């Protein structure tokens, strides 16, 4: 047996796992309680607007409900994730189901935010040309497509543990899970491409709104929209960039590019921490829901605008 293999076998992650048990309790419990309450209230609030102001604010309400449902699904998976992460020999079906819920909810949120950003950019840039594309039926179709895509994309999860005899949920993934043919499509289509779309659409939307500063009377509303877009982009990057960087580093470890024990331990800690804190995003989204609902209520109390103005206002209140 080679010295390098002996070194790998002697590399223990017990200290990392013990530390993460404490961190998960400190982060996941308040995240679960707040996320469950706030996302349920968000769904109720946007459902009310959907009924009362159909179809004027249908696009915003449907997208927000879809995002809140994905966040709620992630919240509901957290207690099982905490429990199963510390239990060995979990029934394969139950472990796979919890892992599916977790990753489906995470990437469902990513794709929903991506389409929201694209929808808003197109409506701000071409308000009259794309108004017919924002019908409730089409928005429902987009949201339905997102659900189909993320569930179809979860198929590799069923082979996460392969023929590994001793495993723990969200740990001990099989070598096939970290192969290039699985990893790179996940990174490119699950994060890099959506982040590029969100970054481009958010930056262009801000530039367009700033350029119209002297051409409109409602600069205060547009300024608030700019801050919402910028904050939403920042929350997205902070929530999802570290975890996908952690995935990349773990890919290097599992494929033999990084072999030093201390580096592997640090990467394992970084990946688990990034996964833990990325879950807080389901609570951070609630701040966006609050400001969107506030703007919609203010708009309802205002004089009835034209259809073109409604299209622009609806997109301006949509999350980036």
Automatic annotation (TrEMBL):
Pfam families: 7tm_1. Residues 38-289 form the G-protein coupled receptors family 1 profile domain. It is found in: Cell membrane. Its main location: membrane. Belongs to the G-protein coupled receptor 1 family. It is a multi-pass membrane protein. PROSITE patterns: G_PROTEIN_RECEP_F1_1, G_PROTEIN_RECEP_F1_2. InterPro entries: GPCR_Rhodpsn, GPCR_Rhodpsn_7TM. The keyword Hydrolase does not apply. The chain crosses the membrane at residues 25-46, 58-80, 100-118, 139-162, 182-203, 224-249, 269-292. One of its GO terms (cellular component) is plasma membrane. GO terms for molecular function: cannabinoid receptor activity. Keywords: Cell membrane, G-protein coupled receptor, Glycoprotein, Membrane, Receptor, Transducer, Transmembrane, Transmembrane helix. This is G protein-coupled receptor 55. PANTHER family: G-PROTEIN COUPLED RECEPTOR, G-PROTEIN COUPLED RECEPTOR 55. GO terms for biological process: bone resorption; negative regulation of osteoclast differentiation; phospholipase C-activating G protein-coupled receptor signaling pathway; positive regulation of ERK1 and ERK2 cascade; positive regulation of Rho protein signal transduction.
């Amino acid at each position: 047996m080679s010295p390098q293999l002996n070194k790998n076998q002697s590399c223990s992650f017990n200290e990392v796992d013990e530390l993460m048990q404490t961190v998960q309790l400190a982060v996941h419990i308040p995240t679960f309680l707040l996320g469950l309450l706030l996302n349920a209230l968000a769904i109720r609030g946007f459902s009310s607007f959907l009924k009362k102001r159909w179809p004027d604010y249908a696009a915003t309400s449907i997208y927000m409900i879809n995002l809140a449902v994905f966040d709620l699904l992630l919240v509901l998976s957290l207690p099982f994730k905490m429990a199963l992460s510390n239990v060995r020999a979990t029934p394969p079906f139950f472990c796979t189901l919890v892992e599916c819920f977790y990753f489906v909810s995470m990437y469902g949120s990513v794709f929903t935010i991506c389409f929201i950003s694209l929808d808003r950019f197109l409506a701000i840039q071409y308000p009259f040309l794309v108004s017919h594309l924002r019908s409730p039926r089409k928005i429902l179709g987009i949201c339905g497509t997102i659900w189909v895509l993320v569930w179809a994309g979860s198929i590799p999860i069923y082979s996460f543990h392969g023929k590994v005899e001793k495993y723990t949920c969200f740990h001990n993934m099989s070598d096939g899970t970290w192969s290039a043919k699985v990893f790179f499509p996940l990174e490119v289509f699950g994060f890099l491409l959506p982040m590029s779309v969100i970054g481009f659409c958010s930056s262009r939307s801000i530039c367009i709104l700033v350029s119209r500063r002297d051409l409109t009377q409602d600069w205060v509303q547009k300024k608030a929209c700019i801050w919402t877009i910028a904050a939403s982009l920042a929350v997205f990057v902070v929530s999802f960039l570290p975890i996908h960087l952690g995935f990349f580093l773990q890919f290097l470890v599992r494929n033999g590019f990084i072999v030093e024990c201390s580096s592997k331990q640090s990467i394992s800690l970084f990946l688990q921490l990034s996964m833990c804190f990325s879950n807080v995003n389901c609570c951070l989204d609630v701040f966006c829901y609050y400001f969107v609902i506030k703007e919609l209520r203010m708009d309802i109390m205002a004089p009835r605008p034209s259809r073109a103005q409604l299209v622009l206002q609806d997109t301006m209140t949509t999350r980036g």
